[in-house]
Amino acid sequence: MQNSDFSSHLLKWYQYHKRPMPWRDEPDPYKIWISEIMLQQTRVDQATPYFRNFISLFPTVFELANADQQQVLKAWEGLGYYSRARNLHAAAKMVVQEYDGKLPESYTEIIKLKGIGPYTAAAVTSIAFNKPNAVVDGNVIRVLTRYFGIEDDTRSTKTRNKVQEFANKLIDYDRPGDFNQALMELGSEVCTPSNPDCENCPIQTGCVASKMAKTDIIPYKSPAKKKPHHTIGVGIIESKEGKLLIALRPENAMLGGLWEFPGGKQKENEPIQETVERELKEELGVEVKAYKELMSLKHTYSHFSITMHAWFCTLLSGTPKPRESQEVRWVTREELEQYPFPKANKMLTEKLIKEP
């Protein structure tokens, strides 16, 4: 199959099979940019309601740039990978200040914005500005390694570069945005990780993996390293007035700019109550007594997993000070809803709000 045939077959398929999405066929580069940032590490169905809400709150780059970071993080709450939201907010300020509120059209300029890497730069410039920049994501890697019969480890930079070279050669210069979206759509809907629907694939006639019956072993991805697991103890201190203490995570730390109940990792052979008491002394400079467990929960992050134990604590002595956080604040249970929390802590806040 020639490159032109690959493109024409793919685009014809896309015309009839593309899924409706609120950002698809959208002429506003700002909205395309927002959608691409949200779709990093996030499924379409999960991102869709967040996109609609985010655009209603920040309809243009000017509203986003002028918003308080806490507002942006609250709108992002539950979507995960919060550095995306912080970077998006910072990039919006840069677009307003340095580009008069217009998203840069060139790859070399747009990639200078915080949070925009090679994939996002290619996606936004091709879809919003019709620039022939080929995208390579997990879906594209799967389609092209199968199509060209590439059996090398897709974790390696060499393999990804090889896929990028093929994508660059195949991209349709007249409809680069549609081509990129079609290739990703094909990987998502037809050329799936397991049991691909080869019979309904528009490029099957040229696919090496399909001809050789190797779709079950291509693409090859070497086993991932085992994720470490941590046991975490957090403390819920309640004042005599019924307010709870929350802490603002450091800006440059993981989950920076989000609020949490203070705590930390359990040491080896340390009872969890002692973990909570020690961590609160280290983080806040106070003596507490952990007296009752509210709940425990499991949560998985990209590189590790946790089991979190949340304990009610009595403040014995000292005034809480933000030794390891940006700020500490006393809030009512009802006010917890106003603050952006990581997902694990959010489950705690929801339970606390419901508790009598």
UniProtKB/TrEMBL annotation:
<dbReference type="InterPro" id="IPR000086">
    <property type="entry name" value="NUDIX_hydrolase_dom"/>
</dbReference>
<dbReference type="InterPro" id="IPR000445">
    <property type="entry name" value="HhH_motif"/>
</dbReference>
<keyword id="KW-0479">Metal-binding</keyword>
<keyword id="KW-0004">4Fe-4S</keyword>
<keyword id="KW-0326">Glycosidase</keyword>
<keyword id="KW-0234">DNA repair</keyword>
<dbReference type="InterPro" id="IPR020084">
    <property type="entry name" value="NUDIX_hydrolase_CS"/>
</dbReference>
<dbReference type="InterPro" id="IPR011257">
    <property type="entry name" value="DNA_glycosylase"/>
</dbReference>
<keyword id="KW-0408">Iron</keyword>
<keyword id="KW-0227">DNA damage</keyword>
<comment type="similarity">
    <text>Belongs to the Nth/MutY family.</text>
</comment>
<dbReference type="InterPro" id="IPR044298">
    <property type="entry name" value="MIG/MutY"/>
</dbReference>
<dbReference type="InterPro" id="IPR023170">
    <property type="entry name" value="HhH_base_excis_C"/>
</dbReference>
<dbReference type="InterPro" id="IPR003265">
    <property type="entry name" value="HhH-GPD_domain"/>
</dbReference>
<feature type="domain" description="Nudix hydrolase">
    <location>
        <begin position="227"/>
        <end position="354"/>
    </location>
</feature>
<keyword id="KW-0411">Iron-sulfur</keyword>
<keyword id="KW-0378">Hydrolase</keyword>
<comment type="function">
    <text>Adenine glycosylase active on G-A mispairs. MutY also corrects error-prone DNA synthesis past GO lesions which are due to the oxidatively damaged form of guanine: 7,8-dihydro-8-oxoguanine (8-oxo-dGTP).</text>
</comment>
<dbReference type="InterPro" id="IPR015797">
    <property type="entry name" value="NUDIX_hydrolase-like_dom_sf"/>
</dbReference>
<dbReference type="GO" id="GO:0000701">
    <property type="term" value="F:purine-specific mismatch base pair DNA N-glycosylase activity"/>
</dbReference>
<dbReference type="Pfam" id="PF00730">
    <property type="entry name" value="HhH-GPD"/>
</dbReference>
<dbReference type="Pfam" id="PF14815">
    <property type="entry name" value="NUDIX_4"/>
</dbReference>
<dbReference type="InterPro" id="IPR005760">
    <property type="entry name" value="A/G_AdeGlyc_MutY"/>
</dbReference>
<dbReference type="Pfam" id="PF00633">
    <property type="entry name" value="HHH"/>
</dbReference>
<dbReference type="InterPro" id="IPR029119">
    <property type="entry name" value="MutY_C"/>
</dbReference>
<protein>
    <recommendedName>
        <fullName>Adenine DNA glycosylase</fullName>
        <ecNumber>3.2.2.31</ecNumber>
    </recommendedName>
</protein>
